[in-house]
Every structure is written in structure tokens, then in C-alpha cells.
Task: inverse folding
């Protein structure tokens, strides 16, 4: 039996940027950003936006509509881009503390809690999570 989980798409940043924005309720522009995602039968099932680059760090926004095995190659591609292509020292995720499932998922990916911003999100605090390349199990071995 064969399963079609979709494919990772690297070259359609506008499409995935819009989709992720709709999923995470991003109302403004991403600014300078890169986006990639998973597509199955023409539908977006997951996407990631990387923005707010400053030569050392960038912010990562993850949205998943259909969890499946394609999340692994998608996140490997995100880490490769962030750490090997952009040479970032870290990537940062911001998650409202009233979203415990998202925090748990991000920690499963390898992010660790750095600190909590009091009243950093509407009706909640904001947890700042960081992933360091030295702790990233998703980077390809040389």
C-alpha cells in the first residue's frame, strides 16, 4: 500500500506566505520573507514563513492543516535554509501561552523556551522559543 503525503514546494513563496498568514491570522505584511510548504493534490497542507532576518536570527511561523509525514522533510528544509544557506545562529518562534498544543509541538521539533513576555499576546503572555543549530536534529549530516 502506498500513501501520497504530498511534496515540499520551495519556489512559491507568495502562495505559501498568504496561506500561512491566513492560518496564523497575520494581518500585516511579512516584510522580507521566505516561505515554503507542503502541497497535496494542489492543496496546501502545511507551510512555513521565515522573516525578520537580522544576519543572526529570524522568526519562524509554522502552520499545519493536515499533519502527516511530510512535516519532517518540510522542517529539514526550513533548518537547512536557516542554518546552512542563511548561516543564522538561531531561529525564533513566538507562541501565545494560551496555545499549549503549539508550544508542545514546537518543543517536539527541538525549540526550547528562552523566556516569556508578560502580556506579549492578546489575552495571553508570549513564549519565546529558540532553536540553535547545534541542537537541531533536522540538519543533514555531512
Result:
Amino acid at each position: 500500500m502506498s500513501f501520497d503525503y504530498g511534496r515540499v514546494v520551495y519556489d512559491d513563496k507568495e502562495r505559501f506566505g498568504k496561506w500561512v498568514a491566513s492560518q496564523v491570522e497575520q494581518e500585516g505584511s511579512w516584510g522580507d520573507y521566505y516561505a515554503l510548504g507542503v502541497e497535496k493534490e494542489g492543496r496546501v497542507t502545511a507551510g512555513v514563513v521565515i522573516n525578520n532576518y537580522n544576519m543572526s536570527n529570524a522568526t519562524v511561523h509554522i502552520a499545519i492543516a493536515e499533519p502527516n509525514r511530510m512535516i519532517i522533510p518540510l522542517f529539514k528544509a526550513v533548518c537547512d535554509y536557516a542554518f546552512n544557506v542563511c548561516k543564522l545562529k538561531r531561529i525564533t518562534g513566538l507562541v501565545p501561552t494560551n496555545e499549549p498544543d503549539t508550544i508542545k509541538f514546537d518543543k517536539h521539533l527541538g525549540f526550547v523556551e528562552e523566556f516569556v513576555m508578560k502580556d506579549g499576546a492578546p489575552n495571553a503572555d508570549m513564549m519565546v522559543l529558540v532553536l540553535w543549530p547545534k541542537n537541531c536534529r533536522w540538519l543533514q549530516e555531512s
In short: Residues 15 and 35 are 8 Å apart (CA to CA). The chain is about 25% helix and 35% strand. The first strand starts at residue 7 and ends at 9.
